[in-house]
């Protein structure tokens, strides 16, 4: 068991998936955001109440595992072996055909399932 505390980037979705969700039209408020102040300082994660967002800043919601759990339908299972994995099971024959999705963090495995569901609908 790893006793190291998780870094903020391990607790929220990767920037790449944050951008993809926005491109798909999925925009809900989040506790954290990826920001690039004045589009030249590099990307960092900030808490939504610690920053003054304005038109000069590029930003994307950085959803947490808990927030993603609220966005995903019931019967969603996540577990960790070498990587995090997620799937749906037992709701119907249709959902039993959903793929097993893998990622290095629980937030990314959940967001990949959310993206899959958005694209499927």
How would you characterize this protein structure?
The protein is an alpha+beta fold. It has one domain (9-120). The chain has 4 helices and 6 strands; from the N terminus they run H-H-E-E-E-H-E-E-E-H. It has helices spanning 8-11, 15-23, 65-71, 106-120; strands at residues 32-36, 44-47, 58-61, 76-80, 84-88, 101-103. The strands form 2 sheets. The protein has a 3-stranded antiparallel β-sheet with strand order 2-1-3, covered by helices on one side. A hairpin with a 3-residue loop joins strand 4 (76-80) and strand 5 (84-88). The chain is globular and about 45 Å long. The model has no long low-confidence stretch (mean pLDDT 80).
List the topology elements:
Layout: H1 8-11, H2 15-23, E1 32-36, E2 44-47, E3 58-61, H3 65-71, E4 76-80, E5 84-88, E6 101-103, H4 106-120
Antiparallel strand pairs: 1-2, 1-3, 4-5, 5-6
Helix pairs in contact: 3-4
In total, the number of strands is: 6
As for the number of domains, it is 1
Radius of gyration: 15 Å
Major sheet: 3 strands, antiparallel
Number of helices: 4
How big a fraction of the residues is strand?
A: 15-25%
Side-by-side strand order of the widest sheet: 2-1-3
* Class by SSE composition: alpha+beta
* Whole-number mean pLDDT: 80
N→C terminal distance: 38 Å
The SSE string, one letter per element, is HHEEEHEEEH
- Show unreliable segments: none
- Tell me, briefly, the overall form: globular
């Amino acid at each position: 068991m790893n006793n190291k505390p998780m870094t903020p980037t391990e607790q929220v979705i990767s920037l790449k998936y944050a951008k993809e969700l926005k491109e798909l039209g999925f925009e809900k408020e989040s506790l954290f955001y990826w920001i690039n102040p004045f589009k030249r300082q590099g990307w960092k994660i900030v808490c939504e109440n610690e920053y003054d967002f304005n038109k000069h800043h590029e930003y994307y919601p950085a959803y947490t595992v808990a927030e993603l759990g609220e966005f995903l339908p019931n019967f969603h299972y996540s577990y960790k072996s070498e990587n995090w994995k997620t799937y749906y099971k037992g709701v119907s024959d249709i959902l039993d055909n959903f793929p097993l999705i893998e990622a290095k963090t629980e937030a990314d495995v959940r967001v990949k399932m959310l993206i899959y569901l958005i694209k499927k609908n």
